[in-house]
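G.,

No rush on this.
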Amino acid sequence: MLKPPMLPSLNPAVQRLPPEMLCEIFNWTMVDGYFRRVYGWQTPTAPWRLTHVCQAWRDAARACPTLWSSIHIVAPDPAHDEYSAYLDDTDHGDDDEPDSEVKKPQKRRDSSVPVASAKCQSDAESEEESDESDDEEQFSTADYFPRAAVETQLQLSQSAPLDVVFDLGCFCSASHLCKLLRIVVRESNRWSALTLRWVYTPDIFASLAKIKGRLSQLESLKLLPRKGGLDYSYWPHVFADIFGDAPRLRCAALARHPPGIPPPFSIPHHQLTHVRLWGTSQFILNMLPIMANTLVDATLEADDDSDSEDAPISIELPHVKRLSLANDAEFQGLLVPRLASLTLPGLPGDIRFLPEILDRSQCHLKTLNLGRYCYYIKLDVLLPLLRLAPDLLHLRVEYARHISCFPKDLPHALAADSTICPRLVSIDIDATHGKARTLRKEYCELVEAFWNRTKEVRSLRSVRFIRHERHSGDPLGARVEKMRVEGLEIEYASEASLDEESKEESDED
């Protein structure tokens, strides 16, 4: 979040920035899909807060459509601490004072947020509207999702493509939410990305029905039903094909549907190039052949362990370059001849067939990503996989909370065998999901294993620490510094830089 400059010497320089440069800076400071969402209307983050710095920043932010192009209507989690303030009307204060006055939930809205209607109310009017929330009243969905906020974002986004998210729960007011849906549905011809995650009801179906035939700009679709939130008796037959006419659709994330019930939506599977499928292995195996000839990037997450003794189903994915696989027990028949990047999330599951898949595919693996739960993978499974990747150039490992993401004996095995990944050029150590500010010993040993095993001709050139800062208290800092002095390039990067790289890879496809 940007704040007003505190140093007087900086004021003239900041004030002289042209609006175009300010808008570019604003866009660079955004975290995609987070700071632009309408979430509980308590969040004091950009772009709303940017409009309160000064008049120049307000004008620049209001004139930048992309700042307002994410319309995220996200229902709060009832179990979340912030939301519990709205629902808990039995709070009796301190446990030691049973007679204390019962507190009623209050409407809450950040008074610093410039809520404006489609006619753009003035700041004074917005502040007066916010001040009304000081009265103690029962919480309602209309307070949590103010209609004026959605209308303002739609207006200020002008003609920019929209990223739309409906993440709703059964505890929300259906009538108010349907009003919001109808407002956003009017702009469905601008939707470039759509996420549906909620409990489905007839009213919601009726609100969504009008998007059929108006999704000419839709490029990404996520259908994520909440557990236990589907009642297929509500599905009108004509509703099933509302996504059938989406000529630009290329990316999709599809969750499982209840066994024995056909998929509720019909989408143009033959167009998809990037897909994420999770659910039962049977659901995934049924979906893959339909899109096999166009897929470039596939994430497969089976959540069941099958004991079937049937022969594996052979499925060739001739164009897949990137594959993420959490459990290969049912996918041992995969053939991916052009596979270049493999991701192992490391969720509990069986990946003992991966070496066989790689060997049969005769692919040239360039990138391997080990997720933060890969400590489930045993060394006798991981080493054969690495030996089948002599052309591996990039290795990425993630922090886990309390343990290394790879088998603890892996660094020693790599140090003892220089034939494993002899061409490795770079290592990324991703601490995005970890809280430790110091480098774990296992990760330092992993880098040293590649750096020290062939001092004459070193292939390793760079190591990048993601979301891990230099820290004077790091006991392993001296070992990292020693490798830097010897010629290893050390970089400290942000998560945003990875997002840019991922976007560039997708654009290349």
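When you get to it, here's the other one too:
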Amino acid sequence: MLWLSKKKEFKKKSKPIIPSRKERDFVKDLQYMDHFWIKPLLTQDIIAEENRETFVDLVFSNLAEIESINSELSRALDQRQSEAYLVPNIGDIMLQHVGNFEPFVRYGANQVIGKFYFELEKKRNPRFAKFVEETERKPQSRRLELNGYLTKPTTRLGRYNLLLREILKRTPDDNSDKELIPQVMENITQYLIQVNADTGKSENKFNLEQIQTRLSFKTPAEFDCLQLQNPERQLLMKGRMKRKGNTSSESADVQVFLFDNYLVIAKIKYVDYLEIYRALRKPIPLELLSVHVSSISKREKRASSLLPYSKSPNSLNNVIPKQSTSDNFQPSKSNNLSIVFTHHGRRGASPITLYATSASNQQLWVKTIKGQQESLAKKRCVFSIIPLIKSHFTTSNRVNSTVTLDTNNKRFLIGTDQGVYVTNKDPETKKLAVSRVIHLDKVSQIEAMPESQILVLADKTLWSFPLDVLSPSSSSQVKRGRSISQNTAFFHVGECLSKTLVCVVRMNTLSATTIRVFEPVVMDESKKTKPMFSIRRLVRGGPVGLKAYKDLYLPGEASSISLLKSKMCISSAKEIGVVDMKTFGVQGMSCLQSKTSIGAHVSL
């Protein structure tokens, strides 16, 4: 028992020593930056007088606020230590002061900006560079560069929870710190989350502002499409790639910017230690961009040996041109580091091949681009895709057409190279079962007419089958169907003039295109032997027949048909013909002329 008591006493004794000592050291680091950096920069002739305060605000941000807050915390911890040799608890002190840690968030958000202007001034201003070198050599700096001190506030916030977690492990269950310290840790965790979020937003905004001033295009319209001032705009990735030339001396670095809407490839030059970018091509919309990693060949391996790489900075925040190590870096012979970017569309361009700095960098570019493309596709998607059948049909039995029979029970007709299939949901497993109901080869189009018949276009022949063909007990006579039209290119079923019409398109290279329009009619079995129902005027497919309605002849080749309320639209390679189904007048709508005739003749 004596050993346990001593161990417990040792833990209680060591508990307040760790945070109080660390807090004093942190405050001393803040005071060091104030005495040896901030005050000399504001009072001495190191930076132009009109720029001193602005520069100090950008680089050191609100360090004075953090110093004030943590000095009070340090004094409170020291005061608690002086009251008793064994400090009973510190949770109340931490909980009292943790609510004042908001300046840590503002400082963390501005840290990227401060580092950028510090490095830029060091290269532009020889007096400042000399001051930096002399100050960092002083004993008070403890051989630590200024950048090391500038990161201390951010790292300090993250280390609080590490210290408090160790203290919590050593705290007895009956101590108030068992309840207070977790509250403090939760508050600090929320600050850390806010720091990460605000830092990301601040860095993104700062980078977009830099691109806004340092990137140029051939025309203002190309720049405007990026919409860099849009609050929702994001710079997802940026970096250097190599553009291959005929020789190693002609190979050059290019800067690639991946925004949430466009990809930009730009040339690089330096002006007053700043990278200036000139767009190599038009911005590429991500919807029209494809990326491809080429397979490497022996010839490509030999050519790639002439392609050097540069280790120069790949960030907007790096403003100093460094000595290139291009001559010493060669692409790995076992990996092809190329990425082919293709801009599709009417305003697209030929593919351009760039080379990443490493295999991991290559994969990161491709993954980030495709990830953003998928994100854009989901946002703009007007319907969702639900896979119904995944592995039933093979490459030798391709699916060419589908028709919905019953959306509630998920019944579909599927036209394939080897026939027409129907799906039925298994009542027990709830899975879709697929069975072939029509044995025809080369099925290219199918259509189900409600309560009527099924039309199937197979090997340029249009067939009609009654709906009974879907029943497993249907007769062989029903399954054979009836031929409606030969040499058929395609057909269309739609509503026009309050009627259901079937438009069958027949093509012949030696004559005009024929569009025969059928109207479904109910068959009267008692009259089917009468002469008026000649086979030329009526095609039977069960209880409902197809009666020839009108014939249209076109000199061109029709590619599609659409039926409107009272008109038929016929699309061809050069124009769209509109046929008034009441008067059979024809008007052509061409992109080259407002009104033209497509030369259609209406036959009654």
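The mean pLDDT is 83. Residues 539 and 546 are 5 Å apart (CA to CA).

Enjoy the weekend,
O.
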